[in-house]
Design goal:
The protein is built from nine helices and eleven strands. The protein has 303 residues and is an alpha+beta fold. It folds into three domains: 2-137, Beta-Lactamase (2-Layer Sandwich), CATH 3.30.450; 157-258, 2-Layer Sandwich (Beta-Lactamase), CATH 3.30.450; 264-303. A hairpin with a 5-residue loop joins β9 and β10.
């Protein structure tokens, strides 16, 4: 009996030393440790874990109070579901959720949980927790910006594209794919992409511009005719730029815009203007002719 107690105390001492060592290592990266004993309903929180939750260093958590730090609703449900799955099937989890600290501050944390099984039964959770608020806020702002730009680009029907010279495929934005009338996802080579441009003047113009971008670093802005995957003929605006490294082109990229409506309106206006000018010129000739007749008549009358 005494030997068992001594052995258990030795294990507990080793565990304490191990936790202290990990605490010191993880303090550098502001990563907290935690451990949940499901048999004895005990929870261990490292110094950093308590700091993240904004509780005192002598704070003692239990399973009920610990889960209540997770923001109620979607975030808490996500963690509870992950823990239930871990208990049933012994599967760990890696989640990003919102917690409400002891001072009522709302922050984002990353929680990694692992399980300890005995005889096929989960007896312990352990893992790490890290404050990721700064990174998460940046991601959310970037996502909002991306959504705004996507909405703007959808209204203007502007897409993007790029191709690294050491790769075979051209990368397209979603709007570029939509303008091409291709299903998602779609991968094409440079020549397959160029072949969408109407054969003749438009395609030759694009080929020359691509070669100039790769060989000379010359940028181009083109308005050319284009045949979609559904055989519709439209006008597009293609901007081509290049990126060089050590004097060698490594990437070509740019934008791609559906300007069919604007272009057709522009062409129609030019045609109407030409018709007007032609009609105006004809009227002027008639007026000049009639004026000359009047002058001639007066000349003979005056005589």
């Amino acid at each position: 009996m005494g030997r068992d107690i001594t052995h258990r105390k030795s294990i507990e001492t080793q565990l304490s030393h191990t936790r202290t060592l990990f605490d010191r290592i993880n303090e550098v990266g502001d990563i907290g440790l935690w451990d949940a004993d499901l048999i004895n309903n005990k929870i261990y929180w490292s110094k950093i874990t308590k700091k993240i939750h904004e509780v005192s260093e002598d704070y003692i958590a239990d399973l009920d109070t610990a889960i209540n730090f997770i923001k109620e609703g979607e975030n808490r449900d996500k963690l509870v579901s992950a823990m239930d799955l871990a208990i049933r099937e012994g599967i760990g989890y890696d989640l990003e959720v919102v917690i409400i600290t002891a001072t009522k501050k709302e922050i984002w944390v990353r929680i990694i949980g692992n399980v300890k099984l005995e005889n096929g039964k989960c007896v312990e959770f352990f893992g790490t927790i890290q404050d990721i608020t700064t990174r998460k806020k940046t991601e959310i702002e970037l996502l909002k910006t991306k959504e705004f730009l996507d909405q703007t680009n959808q209204l203007a029907r502007v897409g993007g594209w790029q191709m690294y010279l050491n790769a075979e495929k051209v990368e397209w934005s979603n709007m570029t794919r939509i303008i091409h009338e291709l299903p998602s996802p779609s991968e094409v080579t440079l020549m397959e992409g160029i072949n969408f441009y109407k054969e003749g003047k438009s395609r030759n113009t694009v080929i020359n511009a691509v070669n100039d971008a790769i060989n000379l670093g010359k940028s181009s802005s083109l308005e050319v005719q284009f045949i979609t995957a559904k055989a519709r003929e439209i006008w597009v605006k293609l901007i081509i730029k290049s990126e060089f490294k050590d004097g060698k082109c490594i990437r070509i990229y740019g934008s791609f815009q559906d300007i069919d409506r604007q272009k057709r309106n522009q062409i129609a206006l030019l045609e109407k203007t030409a018709e007007y000018n032609e009609l105006a010129g004809l009227k002027l000739k008639i007026l000049n002719y009639e004026s000359q007749i009047v002058i001639n008549q007066r000349f003979y009358i005056d005589r």
